[in-house]
From TrEMBL:
The keyword Ribonucleoprotein does not apply. Pfam families: p450. InterPro entries: Cyt_P450, Cyt_P450_B, Cyt_P450_CS, Cyt_P450_sf. Belongs to the cytochrome P450 family. This is Cytochrome P450. One of its GO terms (molecular function) is monooxygenase activity. Keywords: Heme, Iron, Metal-binding, Monooxygenase, Oxidoreductase.
């Protein structure tokens, strides 16, 4: 049993939070190199903290077989969301997971499919042939409407003004998640902290949720009342707030954008056809996308008793930050870990979904993962059925990672309407007439 390498420093003076938030990937890579270990100690949020960046270490933390950890989110996000499954531990967490799991069964998800497809079809139909499309903005618009329609029963066509108001409120609410939790408003003035504005938006969203519940007699709203006792109004409302917050659409948009970028490069255009026609390749591409580009970098736990993580002793009283991004690029698990290679999931190798943590793992795994992939698959299928795309030349594809991973810039793609392809049976993708073939001038625009 080894002690964690690194130094936790002195309170305040030794805190590394600013360095982490400035560039989290650079931060962990520097410490991994310095400590010669993917598990290292430092001071973060003014608390002795062990950063876990190895694949095995992250799995150890998330599996929590010894009951060593408690969640470390409530102090930062509790006021923004209120009590919900994100902040529960122990028996209460198991009971909530069992109850909410009924909302995401195969039968339940099947009942949501018509709504998802209808919205995806309408948005894809709005794309113009030859248009330069901002991928992240497009996907965010689509999945925001899907989430608010599914989880709140909000019809964007019939209630356009209400929809715009709710979307604006979810944005303001989201900004509170990534702000300093300081609550103030100057008397007699309109100035308030971002956190104060977020709390006000939360209250307005809860008011809207109550009104929607009173007039909605079917769908997800009624289902959640059935599985979480309707008498527990606060719990029902808080979970609807969680599901309709910007958190879910931003995660979905991140994965959709990363997928569209990877298959929109000149050397990977043929994969658009594979996504449409080859289920094995499609699922392998999706696994590789979540491996390389997890929407959320990781998470935080508080250590309630001494434990072992990837062979290192982590003392009680410390915090643990598990880092999904470097864990899914661990060279001990993945060959050429920084390369996009969907075939690694088709080969006879020890790499399995047990090595992926984008949706958590073990008892805290995402209960809505099946719905997430259903939405992603439906939106991508609709787009691929009607369009081919290629990234415009000269764009910076580097990512920013907080609060959600996505490209730093507005990545643009040249969209070309898909025509019937007389060589659809051909395996020669490079010469296939269905490949993107827009004018070179249009595709070489600098952005």
């Amino acid at each position: 049993m080894a002690h964690v390498p690194g130094h936790v420093g002195f309170p305040l003076l030794g805190d590394k939070s600013y360095e982490f938030y400035k560039n989290p990937i650079q931060f962990v890579e520097k410490h991994i190199e310095h400590c010669k270990s993917r598990v290292f100690a430092t001071r973060f949020l003014n608390k002795p903290t062990v950063f876990v960046c190895s694949n095995k270490g992250v799995r150890d933390v998330l599996a929590d077989r010894g009951g060593c950890f408690e969640l470390g989110y409530k102090a930062f996000m509790g006021q923004i969301f209120g009590d919900n499954i994100l902040f529960t531990d122990g028996d209460e967490a198991h009971m909530l997971r069992d109850a909410l799991g009924h909302l995401f069964t195969s039968d339940a998800i099947h009942s949501y499919e018509a709504t998802v497809k209808r919205i995806a079809q309408r948005h894809v139909a709005s794309i113009k042939d030859g248009q330069s499309l901002c991928l992240y903005a497009f996907f965010k618009q689509v999945v925001t409407e899907i989430c608010l329609s599914l989880f709140l029963g909000l019809d964007f066509l019939e209630s356009q003004e209400a929809a715009e108001t709710v979307v604006g409120l979810t944005t303001t609410h989201w900004h509170g998640i990534i702000s300093v939790p300081v609550h103030f408003k100057l008397p007699g003035a309109h100035h308030a902290s971002t956190f104060s504005k977020a709390l006000a938006a939360k209250n307005e969203l809860l008011d809207f949720i109550r009104k929607q519940r009173s007039k909605t007699s079917q769908g997800f709203v009624k289902r959640i009342e059935e599985v979480v006792s309707k008498e527990e109004d606060v719990l029902v409302n808080n979970h609807l707030l969680l599901f309709t917050s910007a958190l879910v659409p931003k995660g979905l948009s991140s994965l959709l954008t990363s997928a569209a970028i990877e298959v929109g490069k000149p050397e990977t255009l043929h994969l658009q056809r594979e996504l449409r026609t080859n289920p094995q390749v499609k699922h392998s591409i999706y696994k590789e996308i979540q491996r390389l580009y997890p929407p959320f970098l990781g998470g935080r736990r508080l250590v309630r008793k001494d434990c072992i993580v990837d062979g290192y002793k982590v003392p009680a009283g410390h915090a643990v930050v598990f880092m999904t991004y470097p864990a899914q690029r661990d060279p001990q698990v993945y060959i050429e870990p920084d390369q996009f290679n969907y075939r690694r999931w088709m080969a006879d190798t020890p790499v399995t979904e047990e090595n992926l943590f984008a949706f958590g793992y073990g008892p805290r795994g995402c209960i809505g993962q099946q719905l997430v992939w259903n939405i992603i698959d439906t939106v991508m299928n609709e787009l691929l059925t009607h369009y081919q795309w290629e990234l415009l030349d000269g764009q910076n594809l580097t990512h920013k990672y907080l609060p959600v991973s996505r490209p730093k810039g507005s990545i643009m793609a040249f969209m070309r309407k898909r025509a019937s392809c007389p060589c659809s049976g051909s395996v020669d993708h490079e010469s296939c007439c269905c490949q993107v073939g827009g004018s070179s001038d249009a595709k070489s625009q600098k952005v």
